Amino acid sequence: MESIKGAHVTKVFGNAFKGKKVLVTGHTGFKGSWLSMWLTALGADVIGYSAYFPSIPCNFKVCGLDKRLTHVEGDIRNLGTLTSVFKKYKPEIVFHLAAQPLVRESYKNPKLTFDTNIGGTVNVLECIRSATNVKAAVIITSDKCYRNMEWLWGYKETDIMGGDDPYSASKGCAEIICNSYIKSFFPKGKNLPRVATTRAGNVIGGGDWAIDRIVPDSIRAFSKGKQVIIRNPNATRPWQHVLEPLSGYLWLAAHLLNSAELHGEAFNFGPDHKVDKSVAELLAAFSTYWGEKAKWKFIDKKDNRKESTLLKLSCDKALNLLDWSATLSFEDTIRFTAEWYTSYYGTKKEMFDYSMTQIKDYTNKALGLNNAWAHGIFND
Predict the structure, then answer these.
(1) Domain extents in the chain
(2) Beta strands 266-268 and 203-204, pairing class
(3) DSSP β-bridge partners for residue 126
(4) Labelling 341: which of 158, 206, 235, 260 has CA 20 to 30 A away?
């Protein structure tokens, strides 16, 4: 397996993943592909389960991940196929990311969204319930699982689940279902498996080509010298680089393997609120890396498909129980993202190697900030 050179790989995440069989659902997606890369670097034997490649280009293919892990094609809605994967590969750790991930798409295909995000989560939990080898599972939902009150302060893990649009509602339901399974079938008195949920959002980074996301939409336009049309330029988001929540997911899984203390808990993973920037501010910062090719136009477009204009997370729980906090400033978040894309569209570097370099640089920054996960020091 590859290693993260210069980043004290034997200490990162307490060396929890070396030699472990890890199942990642949704491994061909943006976050799933980055998580899979990181896990291979940590010495894990990664099994990926996804129904399709989500975009053209696709980060999974761009980085050649099919050569570095076990790729299984299958729909998360198909319990039989998923069960056979659990039986064949006997994963010890599960990261569930497979989802229909787009708010606007959920208006077009609500049934698909509910079937995938709710039914798919039930299927994963059923497989975990039936398996004898799973030790830890992290179920990834979304910051949009909360009932959005347009508060100026961050939502805590104990706040009410909700969601008006189909995507947000599906993620709130997934959280409620996870809680039900944990209380009904994975009680704290029972040793294994240990299960927790995570909530994050507004993730950017290299390798994302999804439709209706500000960075991929801009990249597509800038790379062709075209103008990008921007709706809701004043909408504020707590932007974070993809490696930020992934470090939280990995550190949480390491804790679940280490002890039962955090079994059944939910965690928010988000940036410092200083990173809260408007879409217009994000675009202005990002476009500096593209020079004259960066052109955009703001439009005031009426849209009945409501998206929240403000949604923040309180990450105090992650800080207190995991000693986790964000690593990158807004400027570094933009730089990591822009430099990945300019490398892809410009020098055409070997993008797996370049992505691994970014993981190394991110880890070294976390070491410099004494973030617990980078040192592998558990918060007892």
Answers:
(1) 12-202+239-274+310-328+351-375
(2) unpaired
(3) none
(4) 235
- Residue 182, helix vs strand vs coil: helix
pTM of the model: 0.95
Half-sphere exposure of 373 (CA within 13 A, CB side): 30
Report the candidate in 56, 57, 62, 60 with the shortest Cα–Cα distance to residue 46: 60
- 12-202+239-274+310-328+351-375 CATH, one of 3.40.50.720, 3.30.43.10, 3.40.50.300, 3.60.20.10: 3.40.50.720
Exposed, middle or buried: residue 11 (CB in 10 Å: 0-12, 13-18, 19+)? middle
Report strand pairing: 93-96 vs 136-140. Answer: parallel
Contacts of residue 127, Cβ cutoff 8 Å, sequence gap at least 6: 79, 82, 83, 85, 86
Find all residues with CB under 8 Å of 67, minimum gap 6, and list them: none
Burial readout 257-283 (b: 16 or more C-beta within 10 A, e: otherwise): beeeebbbbbbbbbbeeebbbebbbbb
pLDDT tens for residues 35-81?
A: 999 999 999 999 999 999 999 999 999 999 999 999 999 999 999 99
Of the candidates 140, 156, 101, which has an alpha carbon nearest to the alpha carbon of residue 312? 156
Q: Where are the alpha helices (DSSP H) in 11-151?
A: 30-41, 59-62, 79-89, 103-108, 110-114, 120-130
